[in-house]
């Protein structure tokens, strides 16, 4: 069993172990932010016909050759066409059709003039300048041409993409499915949020923090409650969680204490441990196991450790399973606005708040940043890495931080 490995090694193992994303078919509105699992080829021109982009008159350019401010040309108006209707008449010499935005260009017409530039009555229209052929005509296929691969497999579906699918008449689309994530908290000290606190007890916050972190990624979650520090109870909880979830996350009981039996429980239900322990602080107690095509993550019970290890390990796994190919956070140079004087032998990850002002990033560190502290995670939007033996860090130092809400993007 691999123990005490580096962050990089742990991510490498995880991302290699993640099985192929599953392709599913869903209604387009539900597909927002999913990764497209097929190329979308257009089987039509959009617009499907030549149309006018403005309200005006359709005419023959050659009829306006001699028009100027002093000598306007008067054309006979032979029809009035709204969007959604088609002119049944063809425009002949000296004729025009009044036409509204989105209507098909009538036969015989080769230009549109906006009605504000004309003087018109019910019967005719005066044109005061030469209107070149093709003026104000949107050609069929100008937006999307038949045969175009308009959306490529691997793309994150945006609201505009859903509009493109709709315009092509596709009500459903193939995307990579998001893994279902089951969450189980372990610890004899835990009570549910609706229970009164008794002696020695605390409320289970991890299930909710981690559940919300999963929800941010668009995955479905289900809470499987609390198990005490008892291998039989945890096995039972894991079995139910495994029945439902593609990924199971537990918190607590994964360190080296007397009551830490989660790793054993992973093995007892048939999981194969991929690694146990990562060289980082907080979050070093973490066990990851594979169970068939499912993954079990045992995170530390300490709220900040669970939070940070989720971001570093669980999040890229969920993203990759959902078909994402980019799952690294964007790193930026930032100016430190707090001190961090502790020189550590460990690989430290400090929660931080980074903001942007006057063209640069600035980072503040919270006063309270031990792994048991939940409250200062509230303002956390970035992580500051302190490699072993470095520091102290002073106000004004240039550092690098990872922005938790910004993933790297492809070209
Ligand atoms: P453990 O990982 O079991 O050693 O727990 C580490 C610390 O996290 C202990 O102080 C626990 O009481 C606390 N803890 C464990 N599980 C939770 C939870 N679900 N919510 C909040 N705190 C927890
Ligand atoms: Mg415990």
Summarize the structure.
This protein is elongated. Helix content is 17%, strand content 31%.
Features:
single chain; 411 residues; alpha/beta; six-stranded mixed sheet; 6 helices; 24 strands; elongated; binds adenosine monophosphate; binds magnesium ion
Strands, total number: 24
Spatial order of the strands in the main sheet? 1-17-18-19-16-12-15
| Ligands present | adenosine monophosphate, magnesium ion
- Give me the number of helical elements: 6
**Percent of residues in beta strands:** 25-35%
The secondary-structure element order is EHEEEEEEEEEHEEEEHEHEHEEEHEEEEE
Q: Sheet bearing the most strands, described? A: 7 strands, mixed
Radius of gyration: 32 Å
Q: Which parts are unreliable, with pLDDT below 50 for 5 consecutive residues or more? A: none
Percentage of residues assigned to helices: 10-25%
Structural class, from helix and strand content? alpha/beta
- Give the N-terminus to C-terminus distance in angstroms: 39 Å
- General form: elongated
Mean pLDDT: 96
């Amino acid at each position: 069993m691999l123990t005490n490995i580096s962050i990089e090694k742990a991510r490498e193992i995880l991302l290699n172990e993640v099985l192929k994303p599953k392709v599913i078919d869903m209604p387009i509105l539900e597909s927002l932010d999913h990764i497209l699992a097929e190329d979308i080829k257009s089987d039509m021109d959009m617009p499907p016909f030549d149309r006018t982009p403005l309200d005006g008159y359709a005419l023959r350019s050659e009829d306006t050759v001699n028009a100027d401010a002093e000598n306007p040309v008067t054309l006979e108006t032979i029809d009035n066409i709204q969007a959604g209707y088609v002119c049944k008449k063809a425009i002949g010499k000296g004729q025009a059709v009044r036409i509204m935005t989105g209507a098909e260009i009538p036969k015989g017409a080769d230009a549109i003039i906006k009605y504000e530039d004309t003087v018109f009555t019910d019967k005719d229209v005066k044109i005061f300048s030469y209107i070149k052929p093709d003026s104000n005509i949107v050609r069929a296929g100008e937006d999307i041409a038949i045969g175009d691969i308009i959306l490529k497999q691997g793309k994150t579906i945006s609201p505009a993409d859903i509009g493109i699918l709709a315009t092509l008449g596709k009500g459903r689309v193939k995307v990579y499915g998001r893994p279902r994530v089951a969450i189980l908290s372990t610890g004899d000290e835990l009570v549910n949020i609706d229970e009164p606190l008794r002696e020695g007890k605390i409320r289970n916050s991890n299930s909710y923090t981690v559940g919300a972190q999963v929800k941010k990624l668009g995955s479905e979650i289900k809470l499987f409650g609390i198990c005490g520090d008892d291998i039989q109870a945890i096995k039972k909880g894991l079995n139910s969680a495994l029945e439902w979830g593609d990924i199971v996350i537990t918190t607590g009981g994964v360190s080296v204490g007397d009551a830490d039996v989660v790793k054993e429980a992973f093995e007892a239900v048939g999981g194969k441990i991929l690694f146990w322990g990562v060289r980082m602080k907080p979050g070093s107690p973490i066990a990851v196991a594979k169970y068939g095509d499912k993954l079990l993550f045992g995170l530390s019970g300490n709220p900040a450790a669970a939070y940070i290890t989720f971001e570093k390990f669980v999040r890229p796994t969920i993203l990759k399973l959902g078909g994402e190919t980019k799952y690294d956070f964007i790193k930026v140079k930032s100016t430190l606005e707090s001190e961090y004087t502790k020189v550590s032998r460990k690989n430290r990850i400090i929660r931080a708040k980074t903001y942007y002002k006057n063209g640069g990033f600035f980072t503040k560190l919270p006063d309270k940043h031990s792994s048991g502290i939940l409250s200062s995670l509230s303002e956390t939007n970035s992580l500051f890495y302190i490699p072993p033996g470095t520091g102290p860090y002073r106000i004004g130092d240039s550092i690098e931080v990872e922005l938790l809400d910004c993933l790297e993007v492809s070209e």
